[in-house]
Amino acid sequence: MKIKLIKTEEDYKLALVKLDDLFDAKIGTKESEDADILALLISEYESKYHPIEAPDPIEAIKIRMQELQLKQVDLVDAIGGKSRVSEILNRKRKLTVEMIRKLTKKLNLSAEVLILDYKLCN
After folding, report:
1. Do residue 62 and residue 22 come from a single domain?
2. What's the domain count of the chain?
3. What is the mean pLDDT of the chain?
4. How many CA atoms lie within 13 A of 11 on its CB side?
5. Looking at the whole model, is its pTM more than 0.70?
6. For residue 17, what are the domain limits?
7. Phi, psi angle pair for 17, to nearest 5°
8. How far apart are CA 40 and CA 37, in angstroms?
9. CB atoms within 10 A of CB 114
């Protein structure tokens, strides 16, 4: 199979089809090597033209809560009372520096994600 750089959206779609065909190739075969190369080319194209943006802080917290199977009450020690947790998760109040420090440890989230700005709901 001839592998070429992915320069257009059409090239990208064709590469995805080719990778799908080669996905279950036996490791160590030419097809497996072709799949690895295609995956790298696809990844490079996607990072340039289809980037996935990081979630805002509240979404990041909610995602991590779901991953860790936590409830709002589990964040009381990091954020404050139950009503404060609700205000934060419902975007009625902004995270404070102290909350960010505690959530970084509790949820193993990057402070860089938690300090991003986000809109409050009125």
Report:
1. no
2. 2
3. 93
4. 14
5. no
6. 9-49
7. -65, -45
8. 5
9. 21
What SS3 class is residue 23? coil
- 45, 65: one domain: no
Cα radius of gyration rounded to whole Å, the chain: 21
For residue 71, give the CATH number of its domain: 1.10.260.40
The total number of residues written for the chain in this structure: 122
* 5, 17, 57, 109 from 67: Cα distances, Å: 37, 31, 15, 12
Closest CA to 111 of 122, 96, 121: 96
Is the domain of 67 the same as that of 108?
yes
Q: Tell me the two tokens of residue 40.
A: 């790298």
- Whether residue 4 lies inside any domain: the answer is no
User: Tell me: the pLDDT tens digits for 6-55?
Assistant: 999 999 999 999 999 998 889 999 999 999 999 999 999 999 999 888 78
Q: How far apart are CA 45 and CA 7, in angstroms?
A: 8
